Amino acid sequence: MAPIEPDPAAAERFDAADQALYLTEVMAEIDAEVRRRRASGDLPAGLEQELDELFLEFSPVGLHGKARLRETLALVDGSAYVDVAVPVESRKAVGSQIKRLIRKSMGWYIGFIVHQIVKFAWSVSRMFHVVVDHVEDLEAAVETQRTPELPASAVPANDPGSSWWSAEAVTAVSGVSGRVLQAECGNGSLLDALLAAGVDAYGVDPIESVIEPAVERGLDVRAESVLDHLEVVADEALSGMVLTGSIQWLHPNQRHRLVALATARLAVDGVLVLHSATPESWMAETSHLMSDLAPGRPLHAETWSHLLADHGFRRTGLTFGGEDRRLDRVLSSNPDASAINGAIDAVNALLLGPGEYLLVAVRER
């Protein structure tokens, strides 16, 4: 078939509907030509299957998601059939006759085996269809639960080195002999304090621009999240770990992964220091944008203690700090003191109280 030469000038005049119609007509002509060449015998037996296999092996990945799954599944379906009609063409007449004789004499034997192979191949292909349908259903279900990502601009600036808990964190890990990791180290102010205390400390932070001051001061910092970093750290390679920042509002699955990784990467007797906002201050003081879009929320100190205890940690310290906005109780001389103080206690317990806490734990097993 002579190649079709499109007219560029005419193509520019086509609107979207005309272009789609034109493409449909071209594809129909190509399909008709392929059918004609199949019928005439121009296409040798097995050539199309061989071309499909070569395309699957060497073609670049151009499709994604459902399209890629379905395209690959179509190739599996096309490969599930085994053709028993062995080619008998030969340059020599006697060669063609011999091949035809061999094919005819062994046809019953090969046909018996091929029948079982094809039956198995189609069973496997059917299983793949079921799996792909299930995967697509799961993707659709997950997509309906997807929420917008928390923008970096909504996360408040973090300067652990000037915080109320920095001195206690330095004291907690000052006695360890190995390396100490600080998650979300920011500008490196806490790393400076750790290094000044003789601790072999380094830090990670997912935002590269935030750690530039630390890099300029020559500190050992890496632009990556703590979860990604812990994935490549060797087992029991760390003697201490200081966790803060977005650790507080991780998704439950990510939180479980973090605890498991921290357990594996900390050596026995390793120290884990965890700083977090209290759930009460999170609800009262956090911006609406952050509280709505954050993947999780801070946990109570007792909950963290429980999770860590299940992984072989023993809590050795718990300190509350930060802004304390609890209301003072009224004097008992007030005739309504009992009712008023009851309301004040409820408000303090639900919304107010200490804004943050620092939990220290040691891995015992």
Write the layout of secondary structure elements.
Elements: H1 8-13, H2 16-40, H3 47-58, H4 65-79, H5 93-145, H6 166-173, E1 179-183, H7 189-196, E2 200-204, H8 212-216, E3 221-222, H9 226-232, E4 238-243, H10 252-265, E5 266-277, H11 279-285, H12 288-293, H13 301-310, E6 313-324, H14 337-350, E7 354-363
Parallel strand pairs: 1-2, 1-4, 2-3, 4-5
Antiparallel strand pairs: 5-7, 6-7
Helix pairs in contact: 3-4, 4-5, 9-10
What keywords describe this structure?
single chain, 365 residues, alpha/beta, Rossmann fold, 2 domains, seven-stranded mixed sheet, 14 helices, 14% strand, elongated
Would you state the CATH class of the largest domain? Alpha Beta
Element pattern in H and E: HHHHHHEHEHEHEHEHHHEHE
Helix/strand/pairing category? alpha/beta
Strand content: 5-15%
Distance between the termini: 75 Å
DSSP strand tally: 7
Q: Whole-number radius of gyration?
A: 34 Å
Low-pLDDT stretches are: none
Largest sheet properties: 7 strands, mixed
So, the CATH homologous superfamily of the largest domain? Answer: Vaccinia Virus protein VP39
Q: Tell me, briefly, the overall form.
A: elongated
Per CATH, which architecture of the largest domain?
Answer: 3-Layer(aba) Sandwich
Remind me, CATH topology of the largest domain?
Rossmann fold
Mean pLDDT: 84
